[in-house]
Design goal:
By secondary structure, this protein is of the alpha/beta class. About 35% of the residues lie in helices and about 15% in strands. The chain is built from 13 helices and 9 strands. The protein has helices at about 15-20, 25-30, 40-50, 55-60, 70-75, 95-100, 140-150, 170-185, 195-200, 205-215, 235-245, 265-275, 300-315; strands spanning about 105, 110-115, 160-165, 190-195, 220-225, 250-255, 280-285, 320-325, 335. A 9-stranded mixed sheet has the order 1-2-3-4-5-6-7-8-9. Bound molecules: pyridoxal-5'-phosphate (PLP) and iron/sulfur cluster (SF4). Iron/sulfur cluster binds near residues 122, 124, 129 and 196. Iron/sulfur cluster (SF4) binds near residues 129, 164, 165, 196 and 225.
C-alpha cells in the first residue's frame, strides 16, 4: 500500500480550512450565539436571496445572547432585507456601465480596479455586490490576458487595484500569476489590494502571502475594511503588523451602518483602535443603495453631524473622509 509522501503532500493551509469551514447555516449561527428561536425563520428566508457566510474566528468576537451585537448585525440575515425599498437597485454605483470586460472597472483617472474574483470569506449583508454577476471576473486566464492588455495600452495607469469579492480569497499561486504580468508593465507603479480578510480571517496573512505582496517591484498598499472596534483583536493586530513589517501602507475603509457604527463614540473608538494596530482611517462610505440594505442607511445630514463630532474630538489624521460613490462621477464624492 502506498502512503502519501509527508513531504510532497502539502497540507491545506489553515486559512483555507477556515474559509471552507465558515458558518453558512442560519440554524448554526443562531445556536452558536444563543439567540432566540424567533431569529431563525427570517434568517433562513433572507439567506435564500443572499447566503449567510461568516468565518468562525469572526463569530468568536461576537457577544453571546445579543441580537444587536455590531458584528453579528453585519452577517445575520434579517426579514428587513426582503422589503423592496424605492430608490434601491441592483447596481447602485454604476459598475455594470463602467465595466470594460475582463473584470476591469475603469472609472477614475490613473487607477484601474480589477474584480479578481467574486468569492468572499464573509457575506456582509449591506454588500453592494450582492447582486453582481460574478462571471465577469479576471480569475480565468483568458480574462486576465484581456485585463493586462487593457492596462498595457494605457500609459497613464499608475495604480492597479485588486478588488472583488475579496482578492485574498484566491490562492497565492493565482495571485502570483496575476502580478507577474503587471510587473512587466513599466508604467504601473503601485499595487493596491482591497481586502476584508486581514480583519475577518487574519490567518490569511501567511509568509507566502507576504512574499507575494511585498515581493514585486510595485509599492504595496493594503486597504482593509473594518466597521467596528470590536472587530480588531490580537489576531488582527498581528496580521496587520506583519503586513506593515513587509512594507505595506495600511489604510481602512468603513461603511457607515445604522445600528452598527452610527455614533461618534463607535467611530472614534474604531479610528483609535485602527491606529493602535498601525492602520489609518481612509474612507467612511455612505451606504450604496443596494436592494435589501435600506435598513442600514444613515441619512446624509446625520452622517455630516457624526463627522463634525469626530473632527471635534480626534486629531485630523484619525478622521476618515466621508464619501458617497455616485455612478458616472470622476471620483468618490466628498461630503465634508
Ligand atoms: C473606489 C474605486 C477606486 C479607488 O478610488 P480611490 O479614491 O483612489 O480610493 C478605483 N476604481 C473604482 C472603480 C472604484 O470604485
Ligand atoms: S467583504 Fe466586501 S465584497 Fe465581501 S461581502 Fe463584505 S462588503 Fe462585500
Amino acid at each position: 500500500m502506498t502512503q502519501p509522501n509527508p513531504v510532497l503532500a502539502s497540507p491545506t493551509p489553515l486559512w483555507q480550512r477556515e474559509l471552507a469551514e465558515a458558518v453558512k447555516d442560519p440554524a448554526e449561527l443562531v445556536k452558536l450565539l444563543e439567540l432566540g428561536e424567533e431569529w431563525l425563520t427570517p434568517a433562513q428566508r433572507a439567506a435564500e436571496a443572499f447566503p449567510l457566510r461568516a468565518p468562525r474566528s469572526y463569530i468568536a468576537r461576537m457577544r453571546r445572547s445579543d441580537p444587536f451585537d455590531p458584528l453579528l448585525r453585519q452577517v445575520l440575515p434579517l426579514a428587513e432585507e426582503l422589503v423592496e425599498a424605492p430608490g434601491y437597485g441592483a447596481d447602485p454605483v454604476g459598475d455594470l456601465a463602467a465595466g470594460r470586460g475582463g473584470g476591469v472597472l475603469h472609472k477614475y483617472h490613473g487607477r484601474v480596479l480589477l474584480v479578481a474574483t467574486g468569492a468572499c470569506a464573509i457575506h456582509c449583508r449591506y454588500c453592494f455586490r450582492r447582486h453582481y454577476p460574478y462571471t465577469e471576473s479576471i480569475a480565468s486566464r483568458a480574462e486576465w490576458q484581456e485585463a493586462l492588455a487593457y492596462i498595457r495600452a494605457r500609459p497613464d495607469l499608475e495604480e492597479v487595484i485588486l478588488s472583488g469579492g475579496d482578492p485574498l480569497s484566491l490562492a497565492d499561486r493565482r495571485l502570483l500569476a496575476l502580478t507577474e504580468g503587471l510587473n512587466e508593465i513599466p508604467h504601473v507603479q503601485r499595487l493596491r489590494v482591497h481586502s476584508r480578510l486581514p480583519i475577518v480571517l487574519p490567518s490569511r496573512i501567511t509568509d507566502e502571502m507576504l512574499s507575494w505582496f511585498a515581493g514585486t517591484r510595485l509599492r504595496p498598499i493594503m486597504v482593509v475594511h473594518a466597521n467596528h472596534a470590536q472587530e480588531l483583536n490580537g489576531e488582527t493586530a498581528s496580521a496587520l503588523s506583519r503586513l506593515r513589517d513587509a512594507g505595506a501602507t495600511l489604510l481602512n475603509q468603513t461603511v457607515l451602518l445604522r445600528g452598527i457604527n452610527d455614533s461618534a463614540d463607535a467611530l472614534a473608538a474604531l479610528s483609535e483602535r485602527l491606529f493602535d494596530q498601525g492602520v489609518l482611517p481612509y474612507y467612511l462610505h455612505l451606504l450604496d443603495r443596494v436592494q435589501g440594505a435600506a435598513h442600514f442607511d444613515v441619512e446624509e445630514a446625520q452622517a455630516r453631524l457624526l463627522l463634525a463630532a469626530l473632527s471635534a474630538r480626534l486629531p485630523g489624521y484619525l478622521v476618515p473622509k466621508l464619501v458617497r460613490e455616485e455612478a458616472g462621477a470622476p471620483n468618490k464624492t466628498l461630503l465634508q
